[in-house]
Amino acid sequence: MMTDTPPTDGEDDVGVAVQTKPKTKRPPLYKVLLLNDDYTPMEFVVHVLERFFGMTHAQAFEVMLTVHKKGVAVVGVFSHEIAETKVGQVMDFARRHQHPLQCTMEKE
Ligand code: TYC
């Protein structure tokens, strides 16, 4: 049986060991922002937050008040595609009800 490793002259392994990072890049996330205005009724905003962001009435009321007082709030964080869909749904719904409510997204 041939079990011996062949003799080497030391010139076989001349390469540099390179550490390759396991690159599992997560997709970027986007914040969906709701903006305050002087005309959209508070109850409409609460309804939007319940309907499109899955908030309870109490959560929605709290977030609506934050936007009302501070001018803007993050109402959710999503993938680019989901964030775009949410923004579109809110803007569409507001326009159909003739409210000036604004919803935007920005990279986290
Ligand atoms: N400021 C509005 C009002 O007093 C209420 C409001 C809250 C509007 C949040 C928009 O994103 C908003 N009727």
Write the layout of secondary structure elements.
Blueprint: E1 30-35, H1 42-53, H2 57-70, E2 72-78, H3 80-96, E3 102-107
Antiparallel strand pairs: 1-2, 1-3
Summary tags:
ClpS_core, binds L-tyrosinamide, protease, Ribosomal Protein L30, Chain: A, three-stranded antiparallel sheet, ClpS, about 40% helix, ATP-dependent Clp protease adapter protein ClpS, alpha+beta, 3 strands, about 110 residues, hydrolase
Structure, described:
This protein has 3 helices and 3 strands, in the order E-H-H-E-H-E. The protein has a 3-stranded antiparallel sheet. The chain is α+β, with helices and mostly antiparallel strands and about 110 residues long. About 40% of the residues lie in helices and about 20% in strands. About 20% of the residues are buried. The chain has a domain at about 40-105: 2-Layer Sandwich (Ribosomal Protein L30, Chain: A). The protein binds L-tyrosinamide. L-tyrosinamide binds next to strand 1, helix 1 and helix 2. L-tyrosinamide binds near residues 37, 41, 45, 64 and 67.
